[in-house]
Amino acid sequence: VQLQESGPGLVESSQTLSLTCTVSGASITIRPYFWIWVRQPPGKRLEWIGYITYSGSTVYNPSLKIHTSISRDTSNRQFSLQLTSVTPEDTAVYYCARVGASWFLDYWGQGTQVTVSS
């Protein structure tokens, strides 16, 4: 299983950050797997953003929920993140990952740096 993030590395403040994760070697519609976005701002801990389940339901971190949308394209094995009204505090390395049994993140993308300019 491989995951690969793609999207712009630089976003202006107040704009929308859009990233896509392309999955190979696995279907994103097979239970029990969820597909998650996490990020790590510089000097800070990993923070989960939200996830989409095998059935297409979404769950978001309450602290980010108002700005977050996760969707999927099952035919292309992709799931996407949109984060609206970004600020420089959204600067981070963004990762997509698969959530397996017992909430273990068993496969990760390599991560993509996104910088929000002020």
General description of the model:
By secondary structure, this protein is an all-beta fold. The chain has strands spanning 2-6, 10-12, 17-24, 34-40, 47-52, 58-60, 68-73, 78-83, 92-99, 105-108, 112-117. Strands 2, 4, 5, 6, 9, 10 and 11 form a seven-stranded mixed sheet that branches. It has a four-stranded antiparallel sheet with strand order 1-3-8-7, with no helix packed on it. Strand 9 and strand 10 form a beta hairpin. The radius of gyration is 13 Å and the shape is globular. It starts with a strand and ends with a strand. The model has no long low-confidence stretch (mean pLDDT 96).
- As a percent range, the share of helical residues equals under 10%
**Structural class by helix and strand composition:** mainly beta
Strand content: over 45%
Q: First CA to last CA: what distance?
A: 37 Å
For the biggest sheet, the summary is:
7 strands, mixed
Number of helices, counting only DSSP H or I runs of 4 residues or more: 0
Average pLDDT number? 96
Cα-based radius of gyration, to the nearest Å: 13 Å
Overall geometry comes to: globular
Number of separate strands: 11
Low-confidence runs: none
N-to-C SSE series? EEEEEEEEEEE
